[in-house]
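Subject: Diacylglycerol kinase (ATP)

B.,
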Amino acid sequence: MRCVLLINPAAGGSLSAQVVREVVGHLRAACDVRTVLAADAGSAAAAAKRAVADGADVLAVVGGDGIAHLAVQACAESSTALALVPAGTGNDLARGLGVPLDPVAAARAAARAMLAGAQQRIDLGKAAGAGWFATVLCAGFDSRVNARANRMRWPRGQRRYDLAVVRELLGLHAMPLRVETEFGVVELDATLVAVGNTACYGGGIPICPDADVQDGLLEVTVVGEVSRRDFIGILPTLRSGRHVDHPAVTTLRARKVRLGGDNGWLAHADGEPQARLPLTVRCAPGALAVVR
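Prediction pasted inline below.
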C-alpha cells in the first residue's frame, strides 16, 4: 500500500519533531510512506492533487480542518482514501469520523486500519460553483464568527471561537432567508443557517446534532429571528445540541438544499469561505473513502 503523508508543520502552533517522528513511524509500519511538507495552502492543495493523480492508495494529512478540506477536494470521488491525523485548532472532521484527537494516537489507529484494510465510504456535501465539504456549510451569524476566528491569532483552540462569538454578538440581526428542499420551501427572517454533513463546527459545536455521514442526507439547522438576549440564552445549549429544542430553531433533512434570500450572506464550509447566497448544496453519497 502506498501512502502520501502531507504535513502542515505549523499545525497546532507548530508540531514537535518528536510528534512527527512518531506519526511517520506508525504509518511506515503499515505501508510505504512518502512525506511531503506543505509550506502553505497552495502547496498543500497541489501536493494532495498530485498524490491522487499518481494513484496513491492513501493520502494521510497532519493538521487541522484547513488541510483536511484541501485533501477532501483532491480525494473526492477518487480511489484514494483519506486518513486524518488531527493537529489543528478545531479538528471537526476528525470528531465527526471518531478519529482520536491526539495525533500520535490517530496515526497509530490509521496504521492499524490500513493493515486491516479497513476503509469506509462517507458522504460529502457539494456546493454548486464552489467545492466539496465534509463537515458543515454555514451562513449568517456563524459564518461571520468563522471569518473572525480565522483572522484571530489568539487565543488558540476553542476559546478563539468563543471570543469571536462574543464580538460578533454586537452586530447580531436577522435577514430574509429562503430554504428550498425537495420537501418544500421555508421563508423567514433568520440569524443563521447551517447545512451539516457531520454534526460539528467551531471546534466541537454540534450545530447539526443528528447529521450522519452515511445516510445520504444533509441536516439543516436554521435559527430564526431572536433578540440578542434570547440568542445569548441559546448559546449554552449549543454545546449539548439542545439548541434544536428552542422554538426559534428549525431543523430539516434533505438530499438537496437551495439557500437564498435578500441577505448577501457569504457561506463558509469546513471553515473556509465559499460563495455568497443564493447557493445550492447537495449531498453526494459515498463520495469519499476514509481510513478508520
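The first strand starts at residue 2 and ends at 7.

T.
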